[in-house]
Amino acid sequence: MPDVEVPEELRYTAEHEWVAATDGDVVRIGITAYAQGELGDIVYVSLPAVGDRVEAGASCGELESTKSVSELYAPVTGEVTGRNDSLDGSPELVNSDPYGEGWVLEVRLDDPAALDGLLDAAGYRDHIS
Fold first, then answer.
1. Cα(21)–Cα(28) distance, integer angstroms
2. Could you read off the pLDDT of 108-122 as tens digits, one per residue?
3. In 3-state terms, what secondary structure has residue 105?
4. Global confidence as pTM
């Protein structure tokens, strides 16, 4: 199994996004340490605008690295309430702090129960091993 950080309090997708409950029905989303390690140095991030709708499993942005361009998939369905504008000038935050300053979106969930369908930390560790 890769020796990467997988915080217990987060939920995960098989496409390597993480989801953190924040306040009420809003969640914060990012990519995992495993994903950023596989991508290499992130040089550009394309994100939806605040007010846009995202659909679980559908592409909602792109991460461009020195190796390739990778789709960012929405782990949940809802309305974008925030985006990490710091990534416009400092996309490398996704590499240096994927679970903190490198977050990408905040989304108001259409259905808070959708989080129950995501992987827990143990399930994600199994997925990447």
1. 6
2. 999 999 999 999 999
3. strand
4. 0.94
